[in-house]
Amino acid sequence: MLPIALQFYSVRDEAEKDFYGTLKKVKDMGYEGVEFAGLYGHTPEEVRDMCKELDITPISAHVPVDDMINDIEGSVAAYKTIGCKYIAVPYVTEERRPGAEKFAETVEYIKKIGAECKKNGMTLLYHNHDFEFIKIDGEYGLDILYKSVDADLLQTELDTCWVNVGGENPAEYVLKYTGRAPVVHLKDFIMKGKDKPQKLYDLIGIDDETESADEEDFSFKPVGYGVQDMPAIIAAAEKAGAKWLVVEQDQPDKGNTPLNAVKMSIDYLNTLK
Question: Are 250 and 11 in contact (CB under 8 A)?
């Protein structure tokens, strides 16, 4: 099986209180790598040294696109210092999405960020949600984005939960981007009925103005405990040429804790080896 990393956002509250201790717990669980989502007041040099001491690979980081736009060189340099091979655009606000007023501007910024990453021996990724699966002139917004930026400047980081919620088969969609899918997000969930609830993003810490989602209608689950066909997704990732699998659970399921949830995920994945 491909090496498995954890998106540190999954344990963000614990990381904020004890960054090093949480990183050590993640390593002790069996995760080989980590994908950051903020450094919680630590310098890139400090985080680099923590990873070296714990022998955990800093593969990537989710960095808000506006932060990168405001300081492209500094953003890339910080994560190069840590040792990350990838930087990912984690989310874009409504006006920056395909078909919206600032999409063309955002594409140009992504090209510039991607070029800076390439210059530094790194690769820019784009991490999707479900809103990129709205069709514009018969084509998904996500596909439009990837057509708009050359593959040498932007690769995919397909979040397989949101691909499914968006209406596509995750394994098939990963295969669609064979050769352009170095990092694949493993995320599991349950959803009541075929229609997704409104206001999903309050579940991942992003507020919007629609009616709140009920946890009984939609819930993130540890990998292997939801509706996703994980063996098929992993096989597709391997066939597509992925280098890493990344576990992400935006919120622990009811009655669970973030640390226990991510331990359940790695324990399940180890049964597939």
Answer: no
Contact 177, 158 (CB under 8 A): yes
Can you state the angle between helices 72-82 and 44-54, rounded to 10 degrees?
A: 20
- CATH number at 84 reads 3.20.20.150
**Best CA proximity match to 239, nearest among 154, 174, 170:** 174
**Residue whose structure tokens are 């955002």:** 106
Q: What is the DSSP letter of 101?
A: T
Q: With a cut of 80, say whether residue 266 has pLDDT above it.
A: yes
**Sign (positive or negative) of CA dihedral 199, 205, 207, 208:** negative
> Token digits for 88?
């990912």
Q: Which residues contact 257 (CB under 8 A, 6 or more apart)?
A: none
Show the domain range for 57: 4-270
Q: Tokens 């500094």 label which residue? A: 74
State both tokens at 258.
Answer: 């973030």
The three-state (H, E, C) secondary structure of 145-184, written as one string: HHHHCCCCCCEEEEEHHHHHHCCCCHHHHHHHCCCCCCEE
Of the candidates 39, 48, 121, 36, the residue with the CA atom closest to the CA atom of residue 85: 121
Residue 189 burial (CB < 10 Å; 0-12/13-18/19+)?
buried
> What b/e readout covers 65-80, taking b as 16+ CB neighbours within 10 angstroms?
beebeeebeebbebbb
DSSP 40: T
Number of structural domains the chain divides into: 1
- 35-82 pLDDT, tens per residue? 999 999 999 999 999 999 999 999 999 999 999 999 999 999 999 999
Average pLDDT over residues 171-193: 95
